[in-house]
Amino acid sequence: LSSLNTSIVQQSLPESVQIQTEWYRSTAVPCLVECIKSVKDKSLMADFTKLLAQMQMVIGRTFVQHVVRPVLLEHVMDARVLPVYCAGILAANEEDRAELKEFLGDTLNQYAQQYLNVGPLTETFAELSLTRSVLHILVNVLNTALREATNPHMKGIIAKICKGLCDCADPQDIVTHVMPILTRLANDPDVFVQTSTVISFAVMLQRSSGSVSSIREQLDKFISESVSSDVHVMMCELIESFTLVLPLCNPDIQRDFLIPRLATIGVSNSAITNKTKRRDITERLILAYKAILCCYISTDTIEHYIVPGLQALLTDAQEVVPDKQPTVDLMLREVLSKTSMASKDQRPSNAFGSKMSGFFKKK
Fold first, then answer.
1. What is residue 13's DSSP assignment?
2. Dihedral pair phi/psi, residue 131, rounded to 5°
3. Exposed, middle or buried, 349 (CB in 10 Å: 0-12/13-18/19+)?
4. Cβ neighbours for 131, distance < 8 A, ≥ 6 positions apart
């Protein structure tokens, strides 16, 4: 990439501007596009974005707009070209950002109407969110799309894009600008739309450096509704999201929220009469507890939440996924060996059951 940078930006001028322009249009830019399209390491996308910005400074914005941009635009629906085009061409200069807003809105509608894979669009918003001065444009585009959305599919796309923003943008900006959008989606009557926001709230919980009470309240609401209304798809998404963020979370969030909630879900799983649903949740909880055991956990947390959760999980595994029973049994033995409970009755404590009962009554 460094060699390509030198070749394009510092290329000795040919005999005439016309020849130089043709060289860029026919050779340099197509080569650049092919390099972008062949990238496998996503971290290089930022380097290509910087290269385009440098070209505008060295060669001139007018030249890049009239010679480089049209070639990129021909390939803009490519998963790699789209984020580089938006961040390196439309977001590089203040005068182009009005067009950025219009372009993103049109592209979002196109993806929704054609049911395209939204991965490239999510990556584009995520890449753009790294520039703080552009974030308000992204939020504006999403708010406009949400106001005009008439079907769950579009709302689901907006939720997925919000997840990309939650991964990359400044945590405080996420709470201020992105969370209101997610809250509206979380209160949508469609379960698919609600479920599509779960991972974003989990990522916010992981990345937040301030108060997380509102995030916890929303996730608690999801858990309570999933249990009381048997919303299976949401319950599965909650477990998967907690498993993903748990090893990266602040230890206090692990101890005070994630681990107790996973224990809550585990205890409630035994009441599910549908064996397929019960098996789905059991298999996901096994992965969740594997993630928990990779973290440093206090003895108190082990005794009050992890042991009762694993005991409930062991019962479920024996009944619905017997081939996984040895795995759960091994995990339970491992945590018991770390506590004074190794020689005690291994049944879930009444104290834990009371806590869980209180949790559902409050909801």
1. P
2. -95, 105
3. middle
4. 87, 91
Nearest C-alpha neighbor of 363 from the set 229, 235, 220? 220
CA distance 319 to 300: 29
Distance in angstroms (rounded) separating the CA atoms of residues 265 and 285: 9
pLDDT tens figures, 289-306: 999 998 888 888 998 999
- Cα-atom radius of gyration of the chain, to the nearest Å? 25
> In terms of C-beta density within 10 A (0-12 exposed, 13-18 middle, 19 or more buried), how is residue 10 classed?
exposed
CA dihedral 90, 93, 98, 104 (to 10 degrees): 20
- DSSP character string of 24-90: IIIIIHHHHHHHHHT---GGGHHHHHHHHHHHHHHT-HHHIIIIIHHHHHHTTTSTTHHHHHIIIII
Number of neighbouring beta carbons within 10 Å of residue 62:
9
Sign of the CA dihedral with 51 first, then 31, 43, and 74 last: positive
228: number of Cβ within 10 Å:
11
Nearest-angstrom CA–CA distance, 20 and 13: 6
The model's pLDDT over 219-265, given as tens digits with 9 standing for 90+, comes to 999 999 887 777 899 999 999 999 999 999 999 999 999 999 999 99
Q: Which two tokens stand for residue 278?
A: 């019960």
